[in-house]
Amino acid sequence: MGTSAEQVRPPEPTLVRLSEVPAPVVEDFYVRILQATFPPDELEPLESLQESLGETGDGLLALDADGGVVGGLVHEHYVDGAVQLLAYLAVDPAGRAHGLGSRLVREAVTTTTATLVLGEIEDPRSWPVTPTSDPPARLRFWDRNGSRLLPLPYVQPALRPVLRRVRDLLLIALPSRGDDTAETVPGPLVAAFLREYFAASEGRADPADPDLARLLAACDVERLPLWSLDRLDVVG
């Protein structure tokens, strides 16, 4: 009687710091995975990413048994390290649905020294599903990973002069160091992040700018509430 061969599960990818891999590996991750996942207006230049590593930013890469990049996460630090922005999370399409994205997020939020961990995602009410992007699925992913919604009319600053600001995004908060019990975050800290983010991205942060002014006005409270990701009505 014949027997079927037992399916062997490939080993889990190894996670390494983005700042500790050679420049060609960072470039491969950027060109092959990040550029295939994010539209141009949402993606900072490769040169800016490489220059920030070890200074104002870092991240994690997932490498398979052959050393190939199968996914990664990029984070940036603001307000003297008190705020960490998870700027990019992407997994090679062939490696999705195996928990790698969640593993990258868990590693990032449980090892951070930041007080507040933030992320940006596309509002599924405004962004369509495409062959390379599924905003409703991303919303469900971040919900499973403990993210909460900040009630802000969020706009991403232009990441370089030739690009546009990105509208119809959501700003989310993740459980820093694994603490998923927080119901609020400090309004002044979020405001300080926004000023620094706009200044770093666009060269200045003008409080009279209509987009930034609306954001800062919404943060002008001692504590900002955190909402479930199914309460998109709180952001308008």
TrEMBL record:
Q: Which Pfam families match?
A: Acetyltransf_1
Among InterPro entries, the record links this protein to:
Acyl_CoA_acyltransferase, GNAT_dom
Which residue ranges traverse the bilayer? none
Q: Where is the signal peptide?
A: none
**GO MF term (any one):** acyltransferase activity, transferring groups other than amino-acyl groups
Question: Where is the N-acetyltransferase domain positioned along the sequence?
Answer: 16-166
Q: What is this protein called?
A: N-acetyltransferase domain-containing protein
Organism of derivation: Cellulomonas algicola
